[in-house]
Design a protein that fits this description.
With 323 residues, the chain is an alpha/beta fold. The protein has helices spanning 14-23, 39-49, 58-62, 79-88, 103-116, 130-140, 175-191, 280-292, 303-321, and strands at 5-10, 29-35, 53-55, 69-72, 92-96, 120-123, 147-155, 196-203, 209-217, 223-229, 238-242, 245-249, 259-263, 268-270. The protein binds NADP nicotinamide-adenine-dinucleotide phosphate (NAP). Residues 11-15, 36-38, 41, 73-76, 78, 96-97, 123, 125, 165, 171, 178 line the site of NADP nicotinamide-adenine-dinucleotide phosphate (NAP).
Length: 323
Amino acid sequence: MGKTYKWGIIGPGNIANKFTEGLQILPNVEKYAVASRSLEKAETFKTKYGFEKAFGSYEEMLKDPALDVVYIATTNNLHFTHTMMCLEAGKAVLCEKPFASNLSQVKQMIDKAREKQVFLMEALWSRLIPSMIQFKTQIENGIIGKPFLFQCDFGFISPFDPYKRIYNPELGGGSIPDIGIYPVFTAIYLFGKPETIQVASVPAPTGTDRTTSILFKHKNKEISMLTSSFEMLLENEARVYGEKGSLKLHRMFHMPVPLSFRANDGKETYIPLEMVGNGYNYEAAEVMACLDKGLIESPAMPFSLSLELMSTLDEIIEKAKNG
Ligand SMILES: NC(=O)c1ccc[n+]([C@@H]2O[C@H](COP(=O)([O-])OP(=O)(O)OC[C@H]3O[C@@H](n4cnc5c(N)ncnc54)[C@H](OP(=O)(O)O)[C@@H]3O)[C@@H](O)[C@H]2O)c1
């Protein structure tokens, strides 16, 4: 086993709970520190999961010399500021998706990681989950023959509330950055950055996008049809159709889920998968495997992939503003 790493959490909200549940099954983890704007909230989280220290300020936590790596789980608008703070303090970073608010910020974060020679990775957890990895591997191995079409959506009903994170423009809300990022990421992961992008979008009263459909055409002529929405329950599946049949990541495709192949005669076969934990453990394990090797960038979720993803999201969000 490699070294044991002292983890710190910035922003102990909704997702930090799920991440910590995944984190704590790993043998080389020390649940070390939690920082919130509220000391009371940090103390509550610390006690709930058995962390060693609680801080009422992010800056104070980053001064702790023993801290190795920080998971940033604040709202979308704060990822850039908090990542830069951590890198400046010499702490390795795993930062929630979307990596930042725009491409320019992502470039600055990567430049800072390189300047400081400190590890940085976007917490696009789906990338490290075995079902997603097998999805790509099976397609590359030719199970469906030549791939033609990728269909994927992510939608649930969240009643409009201007103060909710997902509807609030000041907190980086919108269905594209919040959930549309998963279908977009999967399309890029499978077929590369799209060559053409078409978008149709309907905004919420706050101006952030509420429902958005996207059409990509990729280099080898694959087409991706993607939708994200906060006003309807969609299938939340991912399926690639090819000449020999189709391959499907089942409902909640971005999580650890079953994977099946449907031949053109209709016969469905499940592909065996071995998965442990709630899925967040895989991204945390990847961070520590990279740190063991002295890397500043993950080969699985490299800077180039985060840059392609953010530049594609920027273009989609810009096009969505025009309806
Ligand atoms: N990977 C996944 O599966 C997944 C799922 C959901 C969300 N996410 C991502 O995780 C991040 C957090 O989402 P969440 O649902 O956990 O959010 P959340 O619970 O609403 O907030 C997370 C933390 O952000 C800080 N925060 C909240 N509202 C703020 C405000 N108005 N001003 C400044 N800071 C504020 C708080 O930190 P303090 O404790 O310091 O106050 C809070 O604990 C987002 O970037 C989201 O895209 C990822």
